[in-house]
Amino acid sequence: MTWMVTGGAGYIGAHVVRALLDAVERTGDTTLAPVVLDDLSSGHRGFVPDGVPLVEASVVDTDAVRAALLQHGVTGVVHLAGFKYAGVSVQRPLHTYEQNVTGTAHLLAAMADAGVGSIVFSSSAAVYGTPDVDVVTEATATAPESPYGESKLIGEWLLRDQGRATGLRHTSLRYFNVVGSGHADLFDSSPHNLFPLVLDALASGRTPRINGTDYPTPDGTCVRDYVHVGDLAVSHVAAAQALAAGRELERVYNLGSGDGLSVRQVMTTVAEVTGIAFEPELAPRRPGDPARIVASGEAAARDLDWRMRHTAADMVASAWDAHRRASA
């Protein structure tokens, strides 16, 4: 028996795979052994450890997913595969819905056919849009402002409705800005995320940019939740273990810091950790960027072993080490 990680060759998915392997080694529970399903459109074959099966297929291919579930004796799924770029989703809405909504529906159909009854879904803070509260909780109203955010909320609805119809055990994890590295050979290769953008700029001798310095925040720059990818992976595994054990979980959980960091604070930490002194280029606001999005992780701390085990300096240092190794 195994757990399938869709998108398991990606940045976050690969960390979840390593966390599952750690859990097998720590507990001796071989039912947590991972198998990866990934179409490698943005993932990396080299992120999949030796000995972990890799099925090269898309979640929109129901037949391929069903065959993989049956072949590998899958009992649960951690679903991370999807198109994850909110800004680009505005230009490519149909592609976003195909990958994230149709893909999730096809995955659930394949799971039902194969008798797989548990799923942990990678959702997003984008479901909240621009909240009017200082700290988001699971009770905060959802109001997504991009096709990406809408697609993630619809994914949650699909799980909810399939649970009502078939008894599917499920939970969805909403999270924010995932950063850092838990393993030096795993790095964030996204062309849209703040950390790789800043580190790429410094490595190539360019000056990182801050978009917007006149927000109603202490230093005028946007405040966001930044969570370490290794901490995130631990809670995905905790959710899988809970579902496998038949424990009741909430329908959704926020994996948040509770306080957040400003973009200026991130830049200052990057300069301190890397030893590269720089003054960021200041640019106007980007349309649609809210001043502050920070979430409470109290419910996840109670149920999913969620906690912030890494400081801002830890996050930057691990990301920088992985970045330099990848660039070597």
Would you give an account of this structure?
The protein is of the alpha/beta class and 328 residues long. It has ten helices and 14 strands. It folds into two domains: 2-178 and 226-255, NAD(P)-binding Rossmann-like Domain (Rossmann fold, 3-Layer(aba) Sandwich), CATH 3.40.50; 194-224 and 258-293 and 309-327, UDP-galactose 4-epimerase, domain 1 (Alpha-Beta Complex). Helix content is 41%, strand content 16%. The protein has a seven-stranded parallel sheet with strand order 3-2-1-4-5-6-11, with helices on both faces. Strands 12-9-14 form a three-stranded mixed sheet. α5 links the parallel β5 and β6. α2 packs parallel to α4 (93-114) and α8 (263-274) crosses α10. The two termini are 38 Å apart. This is UDP-glucose 4-epimerase. Keywords: Carbohydrate metabolism, Isomerase, NAD. GO terms for molecular function: UDP-glucose 4-epimerase activity. Its EC number is 5.1.3.2.
CATH architecture of the largest domain: 3-Layer(aba) Sandwich
Number of domains: 2
Which spans have pLDDT < 50 for at least 5 consecutive residues?
none
Q: Helical content, roughly?
A: 40-55%
Main sheet overview: 7 strands, parallel
Remind me, CATH topology of the largest domain? Rossmann fold
Order of strands in the sheet with the most strands?
Answer: 3-2-1-4-5-6-11
CA radius of gyration is: 19 Å
Question: How confident overall, as mean pLDDT?
Answer: 95
Number of helices: 10
Give the SSE string: EHEEHEHHEHEEHEEEHEEHEEHH
- Counting DSSP E segments of at least 2 residues, the number of strands comes to 14
Q: What class do helices, strands and sheet pairing give?
A: alpha/beta
Report the principal-axis shape.
globular
The top level CATH class name of the largest domain: Alpha Beta
- Report the portion of residues in β strands: 15-25%
CATH superfamily of the largest domain: NAD(P)-binding Rossmann-like Domain
Pathway: Carbohydrate metabolism; galactose metabolism
Domain NAD-dependent epimerase/dehydratase: 4-256
EC number: 5.1.3.2
Cofactor: NAD(+)
